[in-house]
Specification:
mainly beta; 9-stranded antiparallel β-sheet
Length: 812
């Protein structure tokens, strides 16, 4: 863990119970990117495991109005628990909450209350892998009322905290058929891990429902059973769920009189409740919940921690639960005893989803929640010893951690934005606790921040603390500032310095001392070996003279996540291959990108064809909202007259010329994009002003042959249209045993002419051995009737003229 030798916690002791105590982070840095957890140095109890196939359940039977603990709203003294579970009190609420982990996607019923004689449920909670279903049944007929809430993800094999709040209101104004002037309606809300979830109809609350009516009278004489892991509901209430039993585990289930707010749920759901906390958590014998305050207050009515002490013979092992008493109410009333059926003990959560209370000393004054330490200093200001155990989330790597917490009495002055020390001889001559601010050139990214040195202003990230992180890239410099300021009273002088603790090797610290306001500049260029999580914790310390005690500010910790510079990538081209024509301009753009705004990208061409040009169009364009840098280059090529039949793979490289760490060899990140370019054989695109004679000369031909190849040209003296594609030769398909030499001889061509017209044969023309063509291989040829052969071979038959056409014409 990264923490200072002692950490300042500021509390306001001007009230009998200390309030507004500051919390602090307990950051953990390791050589790995594993998640850590805080484990207690003492026994934290266990959870209870249920198996549907074994019909597991915990049953609390025969709850009646007589003798049950109650904070009644009525003079008749009826039991609040009965009234709440049957929804008889107008303007009231009941909250049921606890931890559950289902081991099968079908889940099951985690809680229910039902009529002892009929089994009809006055309230139930069911969970499966993706939904929470709540509701109740009428006690006088077969009607069931249910509402389904969507969790939004699969929670199988995950500990989740479920809170169900049911509000009871008079029927006034309701159109429900069951409503009368003396009855109520009910409405459900559900929270998962302290966050509101919505019904399948996307509503925060269920639709209004009728109460589980007891008939014409009240429910004062009814006897109820409570069940954990089971509901004796009717088939209608079960709603097709796979069974009435639970396959899963339960821990810390509580029933409250009143509406638990979201803040209250989140604040205490990860803390085990014990008897010494009842004074401020809501002992129903000392707090009055009524129709005026039920919506924002709640009194604890029932608490089952699911802890069970196994026999000595089963120490350290699972054991079968026989019976279980609640943590509250106390006194072991007969109706509170839970009888267990096929329930066994299991270890409580070790994934970090739940957090148990951890101890600083024997008084147990510290709790952990969301990686922050909350302190309740029951002994008043002074030093407290913190002792705990750390381990990886899989339980390995256990290591003890000890440090001091200095609790200081001070009140917050919102005008000065500073804590003013309370009257104490310990700090005579020191009026204020120094303030500490953290700033860097950052921008929001993916729920955290990313370092962006081009930001014009420093961003104050004081409230952005561990476990949130700042992402930086290996090989790039990072700078952040810690600003300490101390307010001095009359006749006081102060010089601010800093205390720090860090896991960062190579971090450079520079103190800029400016009296009672100083800056600690932290700079670092991480290497590839530094990829992972790092933490720095800092306090500002005021020095007001040799005879005045210094007070450190509350500690600020910053988590820095070093990531590898991601490799550049190319956006794909529309096609993997293109066909071009000699003489015609061909262009396309290649765009490379990298998810690292600091990167410097360039695009280079590999084995580009002759006369091809790759020119940059966009260089290192930054899109901050995507942490993206892009570069674009344009490829341009006009295949020349001698490139017919060209076909090759053309590749482009995107190179990140980023910064580097001086302690390591530079490492370039490169991406490659390849495309096949093929130039058509025997066709040419006419450029402006070109005549047949000029084109014929280029291809060692004559205008007459060229004209005869292009019937679309009406007259040899007419200029072809610019961009018109014309034929410059014949396509000849090779026969078996044809060679370059035999084809050239037959067509009256030189081997050089064959090479000029056929790029793919060019390297083979100069071979000492005549190259044999493949059957049906295409060759562009320009036959010369004056020089060509006078005979042809077709299979085994020979056709021959006695003389060539020219010889006959000349009469030779």
């Amino acid at each position: 863990a990264v923490t200072l030798p002692y950490v300042t916690v500021v509390c306001d002791f001007s009230t009998p119970q200390p309030s507004n105590c500051t919390s602090f982070s307990l950051p953990v840095a390791s050589g790995e990117n594993g998640e850590w957890q805080v484990t207690p140095p003492y026994n934290v109890g266990n959870a209870a495991a249920f198996e549907a196939s074994q019909h597991s359940k915990l049953s609390v039977t025969a709850i009646s109005a007589d003798g049950a603990v109650c904070d009644s709203q009525q003079s008749s003294g009826k039991a609040c628990l009965i009234d709440l579970l049957t929804a008889q009190l107008p303007n009231s609420a009941i909250t049921v909450e606890g931890w559950v982990m289902i081991t099968q996607e079908s889940g099951g019923y985690v809680f229910s209350s039902s009529n002892s004689s009929t089994g009809r449920a006055t309230m139930f909670v069911h969970i499966n892998s993706t939904h929470v279903k709540v509701g109740h049944e009428s006690l006088t007929d077969t009607t069931s009322y249910t509402s389904t809430f969507v969790i939004g993800r699969n929670v199988t094999m995950q500990w989740v905290h479920i809170t169900v709040v049911r509000v009871h209101k008079p029927c006034s104004g309701s159109t429900l058929s069951c409503c009368t002037s003396s009855t109520n309606t009910v409405e459900y809300e559900v929270y998962v891990n302290g966050v509101t979830v919505f019904t399948v109809d996307n509503s925060r609350t269920s639709k209004l429902m009728c109460v589980p009516s007891c008939g014409g009278g009240s429910c004062g004489s009814i006897v109820l059973d409570l069940q954990f892991g089971y509901c004796p509901c009717s088939a209608a209430a079960a709603g097709g769920q796979s069974g009435l039993y639970l396959s899963g585990q339960l821990d810390e289930w509580r029933v409250w009189n009143g509406f638990r707010t979201q803040v209250q749920i989140q604040e205490f759901m990860k803390i085990s409740l014990t008897l010494d906390r009842e004074g401020f958590l809501g002992n129903p014998t000392s707090i009055q919940i009524n129709q005026y305050n039920y919506i924002s207050n709640a009194a604890l009515m029932l608490l089952y921690s699911m802890d069970y002490t196994c026999p000595a013979s089963a120490a350290g092992m699972q054991c079968t639960v026989s019976q279980m008493y609640p943590v509250y109410p106390t006194g072991n009333q007969p109706w509170t005893l839970a009888t267990a059926t096929a329930v066994v003990t299991v270890n409580t959560d070790d994934t970090g989803a739940m957090m148990w209370e951890t101890a600083i000393d024997a008084m147990g004054i510290m709790s952990m929640s969301s990686s922050r330490v909350h302190v309740n200093p029951v002994k008043g200001p002074g030093f407290y010893q913190a002792s705990m155990m750390l381990s990886f989330s899989n339980g390995t790597g256990r290591a003890p951690l000890d440090f001091l917490i200095q609790v200081v009495n001070a009140t917050y002055n919102s005008t000065l934005n500073a804590y003013k020390l309370g009257a104490s001889t310990d700090y005579a001559g020191n009026s204020y606790i120094p303030a500490l601010y953290v700033a860097a050139r950052l921008m929001p990214w993916d729920g955290n921040f990313i370092y962006w040195p081009n930001m014009t202003q420093l961003k104050d990230v004081t409230s952005f603390s561990y476990p949130s992180s700042i992402q930086i890239v290996a090989g790039y410099s990072f700078v952040m500032e810690f600003y300490g300021a101390d307010i001095v009273g009359p006749g006081e002088q102060s010089t601010v310095s800093f205390a720090n603790s860090t896991s960062i090797q190579g971090l450079q610290l520079n103190l800029i001392n400016q009296g009672n306001s100083s800056i600690l500049e932290a700079s670092w260029t991480p290497c590839r070996k530094d990829i992972g999580s790092h933490v720095i914790c800092v306090s500002a310390v005021d020095c007001e003279g040799p005879n005045v005690a210094a007070i450190p500010s509350p500690m600020q910790c910053v988590k820095i996540e070093v990531v590898a510079s991601p490799p550049p990538q190319f956006y794909s081209l529309p096609q993997d291959s293109y066909t071009l024509t000699m003489g015609k301009l061909f262009q396309f753009e290649v765009t490379a990108f990298e998810h690292n705004m600091l990167a410097s990208l360039s695009i280079m061409g590999n084995n580009l064809p002759r006369y091809a040009v790759l020119s940059p169009k966009v260089v290192n364009n930054v899109t901050t909202s995507q942490n993206l840098v892009t570069s674009t280059s344009q490829f341009s090529w006009v295949p020349s007259h001698d490139m017919g039949a060209f076909s090759d793979l053309i590749c482009f490289s995107a190179v990140d010329h980023g910064m580097g760490c001086s302690l390591e060899q530079p490492q370039r990140n490169v991406a490659t994009l390849c495309v096949t370019l093929t130039v058509r054989r025997c066709v040419y695109t006419v450029r402006r002003g070109q005549q047949l004679q000029e084109i014929a000369t280029i291809f060692t031909n004559n205008w007459m042959n060229l004209w005869s190849l292009n019937s679309q040209i009406r007259h040899p003296d007419f200029l072809p249209d610019e961009g018109e594609v014309i034929n410059v030769g014949h396509l000849y398909r090779a026969l078996k045993q044809d060679t370059i030499g035999t084809v050239a001889k037959r067509m009256g061509m030189t081997r050089d002419q064959v090479a000029l017209l056929n790029w793919d044969l060019r390297t083979k023309v100069n071979l000492s051995i005549d190259f044999v063509l493949m059957p049906n291989q295409e060759v562009c040829v320009i036959p010369d009737s004056c020089k060509g052969m006078t005979s042809t071979v077709y299979n085994s038959l020979t056709f021959a003229d006695p003389k060539s056409f020219a010889e006959q014409l000349m009469g030779v």
